[in-house]
Amino acid sequence: MQENPVVYLVGAGPGDPELLTIKALRILQNADVIVYDRLVSEEILDMVPPGTARIDVGKQPCSHPVPQGEINALLVRLAEDGKRRVVRLKGGDPFTFGRGGEEALVLARHGIDVEVIPGVTAASGCAAALGIPLTHRGLATGVRYVTGHCREDMDLNLDWNGLADPDTTLVVYMGKANIGRIVSEILACGIEPSTPVAAIVRGTTDRQRHLFSTLSHIAAAVRAAEFDGPVLFIIGSVVSLASAYQEEGEETDAAQALQQAGLA
Questions:
Q1: Pair (41, 167) in one structural domain
Q2: What are the pLDDT digits (tens) for 5-58?
């Protein structure tokens, strides 16, 4: 019999419910309360048994109705109030731009047991959905993940020279608002304007939209496409391999967006 409450930091994956791990599903189905983010898909929330308490703490860029400090305090309070199985459910992986590390530290300081259940992060999920290998012999010897926004919406302060590496695939999470700035900085550091880029929203789900462009045109193309939701960008030579998975003559958001932007 479980004596102490446990807070489970669970990764829900990129959206496709079939990418949820077996362990994550088991914990969801036995939870006393679920504290979830806006990036968790409705299909995954539908797997939670009826009657399980749910608390929505979703944040959006420039709009944080439940600040992170309050989320931390909520998790502590739920565990201390006697909830034995508290699930903190996050899109993707809780330790990849999910602030799971901050929550784990707060819980540990209060003597509350924490278990982390990893999830498929958006970079690998979205890349796989488009047939893009994040590393590929002769094209990319490594991959680097960065966030497209900083906490409390502070100015980006990234290693721009390090990001402008033609031998490394660059994945930008939640980058829609700052993609123009990101592109300008890495172009100034010498990366080729013709570098291929993929932009994906709601990746791995049946509502996925994506486009392919080049570094010099991607900001305008994404604006023209009017993507609704967090956008993941994959930048690098490996994106060119996605064409092998496109049917000949297929109409994509890329063509439409670039035409609207006057770039094609």
A1: no
A2: 999 999 999 999 999 999 999 999 999 999 999 889 999 999 999 999 999 998
Residue 97 lies in a domain: yes
72 with 59, same domain: the answer is: yes
Residue 37 designated active-site:
yes
Active site (annotated) includes residue 154: no
- How many domains is the chain built from? 2
Q: Which residues pair with 196 in a beta bridge?
A: 214
Q: How far apart are the first and last CA of the chain?
A: 64
Asked, for residue 185, whether it belongs to a domain, the answer is yes
pTM over 0.85: yes
Residue 133 sits in the same domain as residue 251: yes
- Do 53 and 165 have their domain in common? no
Residue 1 is a catalytic residue = no
Whichever domain contains 177, its CATH number is 3.30.950.10
Residues 253 and 131 grouped into a single domain: yes
Task: Kindly list the distances between the CA atom of residue 247 and the CA atoms of 130, 138, 178, 244, in Å, as whole numbers in the listed order.
Answer: 12, 25, 32, 8
Catalytic residue among 16, 37, 93, 165: 37
CA distance linking residue 259 with residue 221, whole number of Å? 9
Catalytic member of 16, 83, 165, 174: 174
